[in-house]
Amino acid sequence: MDEKKVKAILSDFNILAWCFAVLSLILAVVPSKGAFGKMSNFDKFAHFVIFYFLVLFVTAAHGWQHRLRYLFYGLAFGFMIEVIQLFLPWREGDIVDFAMDSLGALLAVLTPQFLFPLIMDGIATIMGVGFLPLMPGTFASLVALALYHFLPVNSEFLVFTVPAISLVGLWAAEHFSSKLGKNDPSEVVVDEFAGALIAVMFLPKKPSILIAGFFLFRFFDIFKPWIIDKSQKLPGGLGVMADDWLAGVFANVVLRLVHAVLL
Question: How far apart are CA 104 and CA 50, in angstroms?
């Protein structure tokens, strides 16, 4: 791999790390009650996942030999967030949150370097769903909505999951596609996974809503009307992900209108 391409990849890791840092700050200051209801236990899992990928991307960008340094930075950042929350009347610092941050950061620096590409490939293909011989995108959409249905979480789950998966998916999709030498290989299904979740964001978590959201999303994703089709011309991973994001948005708008009329 030439030096220019290596630098581009490392730059991507830096960008992803900063995005996860910003995401963690946003989630830290969002009121724990209100638009998304009472914080669920999924909040703890969110802390773990965000800090795992935050420290993992920083370590990948700057070298595994400096992993202990970035572990310390991750712990300091997590501690800072909890201190900030002490001064917010709608939030409160939580030692368990800091423990989950620390656990995620620790696991990141313990992840062997050779596993990193496999983790990214697993994200791009949603743990191998993309390798199914028939309709991998459809099955990835079903997996996304099935997980959302069966996990004991509310819309807070999607507020965290969609941005996180989309951020990592951008890089994973681009580099998996580059590895295969294709623009948008069928094996990359992280875009359908994220798009299906967008289709049901901020809507009641009911089987009828999820089923309708699935079919509407697949309709817009397959036929790609108007701007959805044009978005595929965007460069790199953005072109892979954007059409599914938009298909999810279109499906969500239609589903919301139908739901409002039926109510």
Answer: 8
Provide the number of structural domains found in the chain.
Answer: 2
Q: Other C-beta atoms within 10 Å of 55: how many?
A: 29
Residues 37 and 148 in one domain: no
Is residue 127 helix, strand or coil? coil
Same structural domain for residues 136 and 236? yes
Domain of residue 64, residue span? 1-111
Q: Are residues 175 and 250 located together in one domain of the fold?
A: yes
Same domain, 155 and 257: yes
Cβ(245)–Cβ(198) under 8 Å?
Answer: yes
- Of 76, 111, 146, the last residue of a domain is 111
Same domain, 238 and 130: yes
Q: Say if residues 155 and 202 touch (Cβ distance below 8 Å).
A: yes
Distances (CA, A) of 254 to 205, 210, 242, 250: 16, 13, 18, 6
Quote the CA–CA distance of 187 and 124 in Å, as a whole number.
8
Give me the tens of pLDDT residue by residue for the chain, a chain 263 residues long.
444 554 555 567 788 888 888 888 887 887 765 434 444 566 788 789 889 999 998 888 888 888 899 999 999 999 999 999 898 888 888 899 899 999 999 999 999 888 888 888 999 999 999 999 999 999 999 999 999 998 877 776 788 788 888 888 888 888 888 788 787 789 999 999 999 999 999 898 899 999 999 999 999 999 999 899 998 888 877 888 999 999 999 999 999 999 888 76
**Same domain, residue pair 23 and 86:** yes
Separation CA 6–CA 9 (nearest Å) = 5
